[in-house]
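Aim 2 progress update. The chain analyzed this quarter is reproduced below.
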Amino acid sequence: MLNSKKKEMIAVCGLDCGPCEIRRAPNEPDAAQRLVAWFKKEGWLKEDEGINEVIERRMYCMGCRGDRSVHWSADCWILKCCVDDKGHEFCYECGMFPCERLSEWAKQSDDYNQALQRLKNMKEKHDS
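Predicted structure tokens:
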């Protein structure tokens, strides 16, 4: 099973939050620079804005187990279903895992697909 520190870095959906620049930006200058550049490209920050505005506006994430007011997707349907509605720590703990909605979500990107595979591996280790 995962050690507790590593477990904290895995989102309820299986995403690995460890390398995530949205989470790392407040404490790591290199991650902050890349995040600010992305936010400017997306039009979420003006050209003269930077990491101070990111922090002021809480445009970063502390992970699923952190403060929900500082969460990239505080309204995440997976977080709501898994934690709020069912009281689980991870999706794989659900009797319906992997549900159709989670399976469809995993098809949207390689990262999401890897997250689902990570959850399947976690379930396999948990069940053995």
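Helices lie at 4-8, 21-24, 29-42, 51-56, 77-85, 100-106, 110-127. The chain has a mean pLDDT of 89. These observations will guide the mutagenesis experiments scheduled for the next reporting period.
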